[in-house]
Write a structure and sequence with these properties.
This protein is an alpha/beta fold. It is built from ten helices and twelve strands. The chain has two domains: about 140 residues, 3-Layer(aba) Sandwich (Rossmann fold), CATH 3.40.50.620; about 120 residues, Rossmann fold (3-Layer(aba) Sandwich). Strands 3-2-1-4-5-12-9-6-7-8 form a ten-stranded mixed sheet, with helices on both faces. The chain has a two-stranded antiparallel sheet with strand order 10-11. Helix 2 runs antiparallel to helix 3 and helix 9 crosses helix 10. The two termini are about 15 Å apart.
Length: about 280
């Protein structure tokens, strides 16, 4: 498995430049085609003004303004990708809203790169559940870049959140191209401090052995913690000096809505390094 196409979401936020730089670095390392997607949102804007007074003029003005803004973002991406020495890249505009645009292009990509949703922003660039919906609907791994702090590189020292579940197995498989190039890989099993049940240490070692057969020198570690799993994972990432966390997105169905698990929500809100999630 390799990442032949990397899709990065483009917007006007200050963190977009950092996100593109990280995606370009991965594209060089994996010899991938880098696709920068700038959704215009024009289709949704046209629907919103369709029944108002002066709708035709307003709709045309809105469409032109949104298209010009997305075009400017795309030009910035192209200049940055070229300056980074990206071997193969293109920018693409799409008239749908951001989620619909990303989902349509995700199905023909191997890895999605997006930014952490900045809820403190007065005008967020994406819906509040943007990352969650991509995880649930795209069928592709999603690399989420933190909304704060510097990100120099990704994938040198990786922590994998392991719990012997289908989701963690899926995440390890989706992350293999990154794991194979890492200098160190730790499988971190966070267990409750008061858990008297027999720990699945044999399964943990079996997962490490599976990775070793793929050329990944992985080490397993069980951590007993009284803290919530997401917080414990963040502490483990900091302790090990990791620059990437790989984890499955967990969830359950309730009232026809798919609610992501507590650890996933914690990581999406408080991540301090890039997080690769898949489901």
């Amino acid at each position: 498995m390799s990442y032949r196409t990397i899709l990065v979401h483009l917007d006007e936020t200050p963190r977009c430049t950092l996100r593109v730089a990280l995606a370009a670095r991965l594209a060089r390392r994996h010899e991938s085609h880098l696709l920068g997607l700038a959704p215009t949102g024009a289709a949704e804007a046209l629907r919103q003004v369709g029944g108002t007074f002066g709708a035709v003029e307003e709709a045309e003005w809105s469409r032109a303004a949104l298209h010009a803004r997305a075009q400017s973002t795309a030009h910035c991406f192209q200049a940055q990708a070229a300056a980074c020495g990206t071997p193969s890249f293109e920018a693409r505009l799409h008239e749908a809203d951001v989620l619909a645009s990303m989902l349509q292009h995700a199905r023909n990509s191997d890895l999605l790169v997006i930014g952490q949703n900045d809820r403190a922003s007065g005008e967020p660039a994406v819906p509040a559940d943007f990352a969650q919906q991509l995880l649930l609907q795209s069928g592709r791994p999603v690399l989420i870049v933190p909304g704060r702090g510097e990100v120099q590189d990704v994938g040198e020292r990786i922590v994998v959140a392991w719990n012997n579940s289908r989701e963690s197995a899926r995440a390890m498989s989706d992350a293999l191209p990154l794991l194979a190039r890492a200098r160190s890989v730790h499988l971190l099993f966070v267990d409750a401090a008061d858990n008297d049940a027999v720990a699945p240490t044999h399964e943990l070692e079996a997962s490490c052995e599976w990775l070793r057969r793929h050329g990944v020198a992985a080490e397993g570690r069980r951590v007993l913690s009284a803290a919530e799993a997401g917080r414990a994972l963040l502490s483990g990432v900091e302790e090990l000096g990791a620059d990437l966390l790989v984890m499955g997105a967990y969830g359950h169905t309730r009232l026809r809505e798919f609610i992501l698990g507590g650890a996933t929500r914690t990581l999406l809100s408080h991540m301090n390094v890039p997080v690769l999630m898949s489901r």
